[in-house]
Design a protein that fits this description.
With about 260 residues, the chain is mostly helical. Helices cover about 75% and strands about 0% of the residues. Helix 4 packs parallel to helix 13, helix 5 crosses helix 9 and helix 10 packs antiparallel against helix 13.
Length: about 260
């Protein structure tokens, strides 16, 4: 699985990240008068480091052991990494890349507000019990769904963190868009909290992630690997609260960095 599956480091993905870092460093040296240790390169490298941590490291599998850990992974993936990566792309580098790709991808561009609503709907559906159980049985569909969410998240963050400052909203409109983002994503956060109070829901990825471990049949793998209160109703409440908190932090950080 792309997002979880075994307690190992994803070496091919690490190679891809390394190549991206080298290419980025070469391009900014050619096109921009900035140093590697300046703010934009540091934001770009930080975003790639976080991306590898949540997807390519054993943390990817560990995050499937409970809902709260899973929501922390998802929140960082969609609410922290995309804005940091966009803010880390210098304007001139973006304009050069956009000029090359405009003819190829112009028809695929989705307005940011539409991306926000589509992302929120798909994110809500993803965490419904029926869809989670279906994804646990179909790795290819699961990974494709997560990649689609990742692509939509960039369009969703674009009005706040576009590499071209001219394409960002003004401060007032930016705050209104950030507020709308919080409201639209609220149902996905509340789903976990509501489910916790009506009996909770099972984690279908837990057995999949621990199937390779030698656990006696009379012992719950959830209780063996993670202590109380993980995999309880409290864990699901924490999952919803974590998503709200990380999303709020991502908005505040993006607005602050995007208006400088």
């Amino acid at each position: 699985m792309l997002f979880g599956g075994s307690f190992v480091w994803n070496i091919p993905f690490l190679v891809g990240i390394t190549c991206t870092v080298v290419l980025y460093a070469y391009l900014i040296k050619q096109l921009e008068n900035i140093k590697i240790f300046h703010k934009q390169p540091l934001l770009f490298f930080l975003s790639l480091g976080l991306l590898y941590a949540v997807i390519g490291s054993p943390l990817s599998t560990i995050s499937h052991l409970s809902f709260s850990l899973h929501m922390m992974q998802m929140s960082v993936l969609y609410f922290i990494i995309p804005p940091l990566l966009l803010l880390g792309i210098p304007c001139r580098l973006y304009q050069q890349a956009w000029g090359i790709s405009l003819k190829l991808f112009s028809k695929l561009i989705i307005p940011s507000k539409i991306s926000l609503f589509v992302f929120s709907l798909l994110f809500l559906l993803y965490h419904s019990p029926i869809v989670l159980n279906a994804f646990a049985q179909n790795t290819v569909f699961h990974n494709g769904y997560l990649v689609l969410l990742f692509i939509l998240s960039f369009s969703m963050w674009w009005p706040i963190t576009s590499p071209d400052p001219k394409q960002r909203l003004g401060r007032g409109n930016m705050k209104r868009y950030a507020f709308l983002s919080g409201v639209v994503l609220m149902p996905a956060c509340m789903l976990f909290i509501v489910n916790a109070f009506i009996g909770g829901m099972n984690n279908p990825f837990l057995n999949q992630s621990t199937a390779q471990l030698c656990v006696p049949s009379q012992i719950s793998s959830a209780n063996l690997l993670l202590p109380y209160p993980f995999n309880t109703a409290y864990d699901q409440v924490a999952a919803g609260a974590l998503m709200l908190g990380v999303h709020k932090f991502g908005i505040m950080l993006s607005v602050r960095l995007g208006t400088k």
